[in-house]
Amino acid sequence: MLIWPVLKTWFITGTDTGAGKTVVTALLARHLHTRGLAVAALKPVCSGGRADARLLHDALDGALTLDEINPWHFRAPIAPLLAARREQQSVTLAAVRRHIRAMQNRSDFLLVEGAGGLLSPLGEKFNSRDLIAALRAIPVIVAPNQLGVVNQILLTLAALPSAAAATARVVLVAPARPDTATRSNAGLLAEFFPVEQICHLPWLGREFSVAAVAQRPKVRRTLDQVLGLAP
Fold first, then answer.
1. Residue 112's Cα: distance from chain center in Å?
2. In 3D, which of 24, 193, 197, 199 has the Cα closest to residue 114?
3. DSSP output for 42-58
4. Fewer CB near the terminus (10 Å): N or C of the chain?
């Protein structure tokens, strides 16, 4: 039996675009949803299509509408700030906060996914770091476990507010082909960051079902570690 924590807000960011944020968010959402919790998994702002939002929608078995998950979406595959401007639209921090708070009031658990890296502009004069601070969220930093990632993770941690950095989780995502640094990255990172907050997600394959993967024992243990759930 698992002991569930009080309601917290988790913000999933990454070291870069394509790090695996949406996969991790979808797996966390599925992990909680299948246990009967009312979980909201949001990607408030996106550009270049809504595939990420649809993955979250599917992970929740349609418990939230696509527009609840992703109210601001723009066509151009560039930073959301610029994509919105191309469509003569504007996204503000206050508006995003209002939407997230409204969804939080309906949920037992709240997951929020950013777009791009931590400092990539989401809207007018705000980024994921600003949202993390405004929501007092626990950051989850998703990073590919490959050469150079320790530098990228430490830069991301340094850019976070100190209180947020202290509570952060790091998820090292195994690549399809490990390189010379894959086995040593976690040990090196542990010299600068608490080892119990470093999590490992195995290679899942190029095509997979979130519902099926979320049931794998090794993946479930990783998700519990990210969420700080005690067995």
1. 6
2. 24
3. E--EEES-SHHHHHHHH
4. N
Give CA angle at 177 (174, 182), nearest 5°: 50
Active-site residue flag, 43 = yes
Per the listing, tokens 């850019």 go with 159
CATH of domain 10-226: 3.40.50.300
Q: Is 150 helix (H, G, I), strand (E, B) or coil?
A: helix
Contact 29, 155 (CB under 8 A): no
**pLDDT digit of tens for each residue in the chain (231 aa)?**
444 444 689 999 999 989 999 999 999 999 999 998 899 999 999 999 999 999 999 999 999 999 999 999 999 999 999 999 999 999 999 999 999 999 998 898 999 999 999 999 999 999 999 999 999 999 999 999 999 999 999 999 999 999 999 999 999 999 999 999 999 999 999 999 999 999 999 999 989 999 999 999 999 999 999 998 765
- The residue type at 68: E
The domain limits of the chain are 10-226
User: 196: which DSSP letter?
Assistant: G
What are the residues facing 46 on neighbouring strands? 73
**E strand segments, 130-182:** 138-144, 169-173
- CA 81, CA 123: separation in Å to the nearest integer? 5
